[in-house]
Write a structure and sequence with these properties.
The structure is a single chain. By secondary structure, this protein is an alpha/beta fold. The chain has 2 domains: 376 residues, no CATH class; 132 residues, Transcription Regulator spoIIAA. 58% of the residues lie in helices and 7% in strands. Strand 5, helix 21 and strand 6 form a beta-alpha-beta unit. The longest helix is centred in the middle third of the chain and has 30 residues. The radius of gyration is 32 Å and the shape is elongated. It starts with 8 loop residues before the first helix and ends in a 12-residue tail after the last helix.
Length: 564
């Protein structure tokens, strides 16, 4: 029976928690909460939903992930990686169905955590992760062109080629005040770290918050005719959201399964990747299954308050660590800070220019991509390059889900090919035996043949057993398989050995095995192969197998009766 474990990291932290650590967590939580505010609004708008939805996603999901998660320092909320996915779902199915798909994804993540599938996420190759991360960054960047340039476009298609066509058709509608503000905010944010080194007051505020304040004040002071949160969304309500289930029809449930799988897959990958990065920063080890449980519950709860998909945020988690956060209390304070801002200062959000938020998202897109990997491609094998570039292009041009599936298929095929190349079957010379007359045919060829198996005898390499049946291998009366270096055997390999045994038996040839390792030996015994071969024909090592062949040969045909 599978054991279901539920133990949030918070429980491990509380027994040794003290006032000094609370002070550090308080400072870190407030810092991350302030940083999360502009990001939550920017990611929400870029995803085609209201900034209010982004803020409540950060509050509700962030609180649950910190309370129940498997990492000490993970900060959860909306992330840039979800932008193209959320935008596509909203465009195709509407906001209500987005909430339904998010809750369904939450159920999937919860099931993955409870069934202890957290470790399986680590099987996704780094080439696939880098490929779709860079692809998502490009998609996010392209999605911000409309608001960055102030283009007059009613709605932007989610599909790549249609989006490029619409952007090109409306290129003449560039709004110069919007573009000027966007460029100023973009340059300011890109150079913020350098400016913070020269001007001490800037070090106290995160870059996104600083550019949000500066951009908003500049637009207000100069009375720039630019679009704001207030003009597009009527601001942010200064109140708690309505609680309730999304209005999803049972008839729409079927078409939400595929989007939900995409959300669950990306949420699992990004949250566990973020937790692994955090582990390296604080010298700790997260619980991947508990983290998936928390991510699942967060994505079930957030839509009940009007929020959407959430996951672990690498940038906010790293900021939390750098600010002194070492327990989930910091994440709880981050959520409380966001709540306080909404209840106190929500009316001010109406003045925030969309151009400023688009600049923030563009910089996030640039920073999330691992662009140096493209420069280093020449250092790696052609299959590494093919997987990374294929996943990148398919993510940009078509769909993230298809890209990940393609990447996994290609990675699996290349792995199978590589493993099959490592599997070898080599004939052993038996030089000493070649000097013994009773082991020789009249023509001088050996009546005994010995073969060494290397690696893994699996479905991708089982065809190599055919070498033993090649007429050029002679016509032995005894064939010895030395499996000392055979480390793994699957059922297809078992079937291959059974076929080999049967074909050798038809030719009057006896099969001997020696040096069985634990896994191949266990499978051969359980499948009845050893019983069919005979216990006496399974030897400890090659010398014992040759001694067994000495005893068998006088009772055999002494010549070759049947041709191969």
């Amino acid at each position: 029976m599978m054991k279901i474990a539920f133990r949030p990291k918070l429980l491990d932290c509380l027994p040794t928690y003290d006032r000094a650590q609370f002070g550090k967590d308080l400072g870190a939580g407030i810092t991350v909460g302030v940083l999360a505010l502009p990001l939550a609004m920017a990611f929400a708008i870029a995803s085609g939903v209201s900034p209010t939805a982004g803020i409540w996603t950060a509050i509700v999901a962030g609180l649950i992930i910190s309370l129940l998660g498997g990492s000490r320092v993970q900060i959860g909320g909306p992330t840039g990686a979800f932008i193209p996915i959320i935008y596509g779902i909203v465009a195709a199915h509407g906001f209500a169905n987005l909430l339904g798909a998010t809750m369904l994804a939450g159920v999937m993540l919860l099931a993955m955590g409870l069934t202890r599938m957290g470790q399986l996420i680590r099987f996704i190759p780094v080439t696939v992760v880098i490929g779709f991360t860079n692809g998502i960054a490009v998609v996010i960047f392209l999605a911000q062109i409309k608001d960055f340039f102030g283009l007059t476009i009613a709605s932007l298609p989610a599909e790549f080629f249609a989006r490029i066509k619409v952007l090109a058709a409306h290129a003449h509608t560039v709004d110069l005040p919007t573009l000027a503000l966007s460029i100023a905010c973009f340059v300011f944010l890109l150079s913020y770290n350098r400016l913070a080194q020269r001007f001490a007051p800037l070090r106290r505020a995160p870059g996104p918050l600083a550019v949000l304040v500066v951009g908003t004040v500049a637009a207000w002071a100069l009375d720039l005719p630019v679009e704001t949160i207030g003009s597009r969304f009527n601001g942010i309500p200064q109140e708690l959201p309505a609680f309730g289930f999304p209005d999803v029809s049972i008839h729409d449930f079927g078409k939400l399964i595929s989007p939900a799988i995409t959300i669950a897959l990306l949420g699992a990958i990004e949250s566990l990747l973020s937790a692994r990065v955090a582990d390296g920063q604080i010298d700790d080890r997260h619980d991947p299954n508990q983290e998936l449980v928390a991510q699942g519950l967060a994505n079930i709860a957030a839509p009940l308050c009007g929020g959407f998909a959430a996951t672990g945020a690498i940038a906010r988690t790293s900021t939390n660590v750098k600010s002194g956060g070492r327990t989930p209390i910091a994440g709880i304070i981050h959520a409380a800070t966001l709540l306080a801002v909404v209840l106190v200062a929500a009316p001010l959000a109406a003045y925030v220019p969309l151009a400023t938020l688009s600049a923030i998202v563009m910089v996030v897109a640039i920073n999330m991509g691992e662009w140096h990997e493209f420069k280093e491609l020449r250092r790696y094998s052609w299959n590494y390059r093919l997987i990374l570039v294929s996943v990148f292009l398919v993510t940009v041009l078509f769909d993230l889900t298809i890209a990940v599936e393609l990447g996994m298929v290609l990675a699996s095929l290349f792995f199978i090919y590589r493993m099959s190349e490592l599997t070898r079957i080599e004939r052993l010379p038996l030089d000493e035996e070649a000097q013994e007359p009773h082991l020789l045919y009249p023509d001088g060829t050996l009546r005994v043949a010995a073969w060494q198996l290397y690696g893994s005898l699996f479905f991708g390499a089982v065809n190599k057993l055919e070498e033993l049946l090649d007429p050029r291998a002679g016509h032995p009366e005894v064939v010895i398989l030395d499996t000392t270096r055979l480390v793994q055997l699957d059922t297809t390999g078992l079937e291959g050995l059974e076929n080999l045994r049967d074909k050798l038996a038809k030719r009057g040839c006896t099969l001997l095995l020696c040096g069985l390792n634990s896994q191949p030996g266990s499978l051969l015994y359980r499948a009845g192969f050893i019983d069919a071969v005979g216990d006496d024909n399974v030897c400890a090592d090659l010398p014992h197998a040759i001694a067994r062949a000495h005893r068998l040969l006088p009772n055999l045909m002494g010549g070759h009766q049947e041709e191969y």
